[in-house]
Amino acid sequence: MATIKHLSSKNSDLGAAERYLIFQHDESSNKPILDADGHLIPREDYRIDSILCGDEDFAIACMKTNLAYNKNLSRGDVKTHHYIISFDPRDAEENGLTMDRAQELGLEFCKKHFPGHQALVCTHPDGHNKSGNIHVHIVINSLGIPKHLGYPCPPPTKSSSSTRPYATPTS
User: Which residue ranges of the chain lie beneath pLDDT 50?
Assistant: First the structure.
C-alpha cells in the first residue's frame, strides 16, 4: 500500500526541484553532494519525465506560463506542489513493483489528478536511510491551465479583457 505526502513551495527557483530529483543530496542536511571539483553528483538511478513542458525544461516552461498569465510572481505565492508517493518496500517482491512500473503509475496519477499542470514525475529506487521503498516524486506548477486554452499554455492576447478567470492557481 502506498502513502502520499504533500509539500507546497514558495521557492522562486523552479530549477531547485529538478536538481533535487536528479542529483545526490545529503539525507540529514538536504544539501547537494559535490564531487572533488565542486560539481553536483547525479543520482545513480532514477526515472524522470515532464508533462506539458514541450521541448523546454520544467523551470523554463513554468516561468513562461506564469509570466504569460501574470501568476505566481509574488514572493508569497505558492509556486509548486510536490507530492511523494511512497510504496511499501514489500511491493517489489510481493507485487512485482519495479521502478519503471512505479514511474508509469506516477505519470497516470499526475495526468488524472492534475490535468493542465506542467509537471515533473521522477521515481527513485529507495527512501531515506536506504529503506528500499520505491517512491515517485510529482512536482507540479501550481498554475493549472484549462484544456480549452490549449497545451502547452499559449500566452493570452493583449486584446482579451481578462485571462484571470481561465488561469486559476490550485490550492
Answer: 148, 152-171
